[in-house]
Amino acid sequence: xxxxxxxxxxxxxxxxxxxxxxxxxxxxxxxxxxxxxxxxxxxxxxxxxxxxxxxxxxxxxxxxxxxxxxxxxxxxxxxxxxxxxxxxxxxxxxxxxxxxxxxxxxxxxxxxxxxxxxxxxxxxxxxxxxxxxxxxxxxxxxxxxxxxxxxxxx
Length: 154
Prior knowledge:
Layout: E1 13-16, E2 20-23, H1 24-27, E3 31-36, H2 43-54, H3 56-61, E4 64-70, H4 74-83, E5 90-92, H5 97-101, E6 105-110, E7 113-118, E8 121-125, E9 131-135, H6 143-153
Parallel strand pairs: 3-4, 4-5
Antiparallel strand pairs: 1-2, 3-8, 6-7, 8-9
């Protein structure tokens, strides 16, 4: 699936850290940053999470919710969140239904070996649940700042 700005974001409902659920409907009326990442507690994913955390108050001030999404379990998310004092929810998509709906569960290749995994992607959703912007194949340095600038401009 190709995410196109202006289109309705795919609906989702997933369990998140803290023992609750999050859905596109529950976030309506606020801007939302969904950042999809491969794995808890790996170097790139940790840096990305910490960068979003460092800007959390600025995102909050621009009425923007941050949600991290990966196929890791809630138990893994809870450990990751505690270890790095992350104050935004991490959603667990072990069945990969949301990852597939957003087109980020893809075939990857490393050292000639092919496998399925998450392509690091960020989606900014407007207050009406429409896709405002998509960043594919994200490079972590400077990314959270770029997303914040886009959220502020929305």
